[in-house]
Predict the structure.
Amino acid sequence: MKLLKSITIGISPLLAMSFSIAILLSSCGGADNGKSTRRVSTKVHDREAYALGEEHAANLLKSADDEDSVQEGLLDIRARISNIESNLGRQSAADYERGFTDYVRKNCDSLARIIF
């Protein structure tokens, strides 16, 4: 985190956040073990996972004015998606992520434009 702060000195906060989030999202891909070839329905099947995604998005938006909290929150969300996929399946993970992204887009479009 200190390295990130030293890199972003002198860069506008919005640009720094965009850069940081791009690195964050690209570095969280990980090994997929061929699971990406399976199709996931665009309909929400796991309503509980969707609602949990919305709840976690609401918690993240409460600290959206603090860049470090947002970055840590996004890391936590990415970890939860991976954990849900491992334990409950790809569809539940997609529904959780959809709940998260829908909530952020609906309630904080400026942050949504940066992270999605």
About this structure: The two ends are 22 Å apart (CA to CA). Residues 67-88 form the longest helix (22 residues). Residues 8 and 88 are 38 Å apart (CA to CA).
